[in-house]
Amino acid sequence: MNCGVNKSILKIYSSQSRAKGKSIVSCSSFELRKVLYRWLSRNKFSLLFPTGEGGRQIQRNMLRDLKLLGTKLGITGVRVSFHTFRHTFAVNYLRAGGNLYYLSRILGHSSMKTTERYLQSLGVEDLRAVHDRLSLLSR
């Protein structure tokens, strides 16, 4: 996975993703941008997650390493995967009152139907909490 950081945009070049080619991700966290700049300037390889020899990672190996990290951290009872991280982010974004359209753009979905699936993870209490927090009548 190649990576380029320019102001608040993170460009990821991948041959492994469903939409092969370039993905553009919002990188609004100043701290994240600082870490990425520091990493990329110190790293002798052009890849964000290179192998020890500087080559491209294999997705299966990255998932294996992620699962090992989850075990070391004592994470149990949930699947440890990149998709789970993505799903957890999406659900928490919606629970915090995030906009479904913006979430769709953040995740890079080409269809709102794909993003709407995350709504199924929200319960009535989640929706009530967001409504109470955002409603003018609740103030």
Keywords for this structure?
47% helix, 2 domains, 12% strand, globular, three-stranded antiparallel sheet, 139 residues, alpha+beta
Overview of this protein structure:
The structure is a single chain. The chain has a three-stranded antiparallel sheet, with helices on one face. It has two domains: 1-57, no CATH class; 79-139. Strand 1 (2-6) and strand 2 (9-14) form a beta hairpin. It is globular, with a radius of gyration of 18 Å. It is α+β, with helices and mostly antiparallel strands and 139 residues long. The chain has six helices and three strands; from the N terminus they run E-E-E-H-H-H-H-H-H. The mean pLDDT is 79. The chain has helices at 30-42, 59-72, 82-95, 100-107, 112-116, 124-134, and strands at 2-6, 9-14, 21-26.
